[in-house]
Amino acid sequence: MLTTSVRALRLPGHALRARAAPVDFDATSRELRASLAGGLAAALVRGPVGAGLAAPMLGVGLRVIIDAAEGPATAMFNPRIEETSGRMVAGEEGNLCLPGVRAEVRRAQTVTVSWQTLAGQDRTETFHDWHARVLQHEIEILDGRLFLDHEGVQPLGTMPMPDAQAERAAALLFGELEPERRRAEPVSVATFDPQLWQLDPIVVRPPSAPGIELDPKFLRALAYGLFREQYERGGVGLAAPQVGLGLRIAAIDDREHVPVLLRDPEILDRSDETEIGPEGCLSLPGWRGPVERHVAIKVRNHTVEGEPIELEFEGYQARIVQHEMDHLDGVLFTDRMAPDAELAPYSGPPREEQAVAEVLRDAAAPPPARTKPKRRR
Length: 377
Ligand code: ZN
Prior knowledge:
By secondary structure, the protein is of the alpha+beta class. Helices cover 25% and strands 27% of the residues. The strands form four sheets. Strands 1, 2, 3, 4, 5 and 6 form a six-stranded antiparallel β-sheet that branches. A three-stranded antiparallel β-sheet has the order 7-8-9, with helices on both faces. The chain has a three-stranded antiparallel β-sheet with strand order 10-13-14. The structure holds zinc ion.
């Protein structure tokens, strides 16, 4: 599930603002549609609450919703509101993508919806009250419109406690922060099956233009959120497009060097020497493949204040930087694999084992040094 904040939704290129494309029943296999509907339904069940879900909420820009307002859950492909009637009724709404945000929204009491089933049959039905509300709420998401675009948004709730590692990364990058400034943006990575990633309407590949003006407070909170999300999932890097943001920003921590925040990065120089090594991606959990990368790179990066800074990376860290920079251009490591190379299923160490290993490593390591990554003059 892509989670986000009200302020992030105002940024250009946000995945939840994209208009979803119709599902072409001639161009998609039934298997692919079933995989998509199944993934949406599973995400809905995993979520804290939820009577419905629209595909863009998971990073897929296709016109599909899951309706679980009453009775068995139904996948509606290409749903359309044919008619609304009855009086306008106010009711409180929220969205799984906007934790803690609620709003009172006025909706028509009765709605007639037409859609296609997974198998391609046409259906038209009329819904009332709560069910009508849920369907209006989900269908408008397909046009990049959210419930809080209606009148009377009342943000409620509090941010969850940040992860200790994210706190450390933020402190190393920005210095010690006052408690009230340690606020993480609520972000979460959208995950896909490799075959789904081949679809064009993956909305976590937004065009990410460089030089977008960002409030430094927002940037810190976003970095914090990106680090926290990657630590939670055992990753070593996470780029803004993976969480639905059209920004050229990525958070990297190879667990050996000081964490790095890439901002509008640009490769200045690459080593001739390359190396083939295994890569995985938080967007495609459970899969690995061999990718050829430059052994060393020189990058022009930008600080939180927007000052240009040159950084040099080599080995594993250089690989991560190249992988994350690819995300900023909508390129996935699978796109970089040799034609004859194959994706292989992969399962990392169980979370408990990983936690124990991390605790033991921290016990043996010296206190974190206040050094910056290598840079040239
Ligand atoms: Zn990745």
